[in-house]
Structure formats: C-alpha cells, structure tokens
Amino acid sequence: MSRRVTGPEIERLIQLLARLPGLGPRSARRAALQLVKKKDQLLEPLAEALVRVRDTVKVCSVCGNVDTADPCIVCTDPRRDASVIVVVEDVSDLWALERAGAIDARYHVLGGVLSPLNGIGPDDLTIAGLIERARDPAVREVILAVNATVDGQTTAHYVTDRLQGLDVRVSRLAHGVPVGGELDYLDEGTLAAAIRSRTPF
Predict the structure, then answer these.
(1) pLDDT in tens, the chain (201 residues)
(2) What is the second-level CATH architecture of the domain 8-56?
(3) Burial class for 59, CB neighbours closer than 10 Å (0-12, 13-18, 19+)
(4) 0.90 exceeded by the pTM?
(5) Which own/partner pairs from 183-192 qualify as long-range (CB within 8 Å, at least 24 positions apart)?
(6) CB 86 within 8 Å of CB 77
(7) Is 134:142 a contact under the CB 8 Å cutoff?
(8) Is the distance from CB of 170 to CB of 163 less than 8 angstroms?
(9) Domain ranges of the chain
(10) Residue 127, Cα to own-chain centre: how many angstroms?
(11) Nearest Cα to 87, choosing from 176, 194, 160, 151?
C-alpha cells in the first residue's frame, strides 16, 4: 500500500492532470511536480491562461470550432473558399488539417462519429446542421475527412446518403500509402486501401 507524500491540493492537481489525453498517473505526477517547482514561470501563467480560456472560449455556432469569437476566425475569413466544406469528427482534426495547410476551405465539426454500440446516433452529432449548410447554393463540394475506422466510414456513408439530392459533390480523403512510407512497414488494410484508391501515373 502506497503512502501519500503530498497534501490534498497537490493530489487533486495530479488527478486532474491525469484526466488529460496522453497523461497517465506517472506523467501527471511529473507534470504537477514541474508546475509546483516552477510556480512563477509555469504555474501562475498557466492558471491565468486557464481562467482566460474558461471565460472567453466559445463553440462556433456555424462550424463547431472553438475560438474566442462566434462565428470563429475560420468561418469569417473572406479568403477561404466558401464553396467547399471539409467535414471532420473533432476540433483536433480541424486543427491538424490547418497545420498541414493543404486547403483553404470552410469546416464542419460533427462532434464524433455514429456508434450504435456506444449509443451515439445521428441526433447526437451535428449532421442536421451540415445538411442545412450544404443546401446553400454557394456550396459545391463536401469533403468527408473522417477517420478510416469502421465508425468513421459508417458515418461517412450516412452523411453521403443524407446529402443525396443536393447539388453538391461529395468526396473523401484518399486512403493508402503515406508520403515517405515503405510498403514493408504498412498494415494490410492500408495496402488494400491504397490499391483500391490507385490513380493514373
């Protein structure tokens, strides 16, 4: 049986940090120790930033991104192509695509994927809002940038069915060999997807 070596305040900090993705109990303890040891340089600025985020961050009512403005900076950027909507599962996917800088389009965050086993149906996601946005005559293409999981592909098929009859092109991200990837190191599913999605050379 392990004994406590800190007061309840530090234990609470460790417990909260351990809830963050990628941080287990051991990493949370190390992070908490760094914060406590460097109160002036780390802990106080972090506490102030967290309060500011709590008080100012909103979910965009148009696309579902998080920002300090509603509509968000992506939705109000006039340089973006308003004819293309990129559909993602989560805000982290939106941020990943933005880091890549591959497309200057608008986004729509679904808030997850359809998962009957977990009780997540169409009404739990923002699919209805996407369909409404796709009815806009200015929208010409919807790109489904969902993960290549069973639930992700089920969601993609469901959204595609819902978009039938609208004057929009529906496309999805290519699946297959990553840039710089070596065939010997790829799994069978990735190789099969790459063969099926082959393009002219």
Answers:
(1) 566 667 889 999 999 999 999 999 999 999 999 999 999 999 999 999 999 999 999 999 999 999 999 999 999 999 999 999 999 999 999 999 999 888 899 999 999 999 999 999 999 999 999 999 999 999 999 999 998 888 999 999 999 999 999 999 999 888 776 777 776 777 777 777 777 777 666
(2) Orthogonal Bundle (1.10)
(3) middle
(4) no
(5) 189/148
(6) no
(7) yes
(8) yes
(9) 8-56, 66-172
(10) 15
(11) 160
Q: What is the edge-to-edge ordering of all strands in the sheet holding 169-172?
A: 105-109, 81-88, 141-144, 169-172
H/E element holding 116?
Answer: none
C-alpha dihedral (149, 150, 151, 153), degrees to nearest 10: 80
Q: What CATH class does 66-172 carry?
A: alpha beta
**Amino acid occupying residue 177:** V
Residue 97 neighbours by CB under 8 Å, 6+ apart: 86, 88, 103, 107, 145
Q: Which residue has the tokens 């309060």?
A: 51
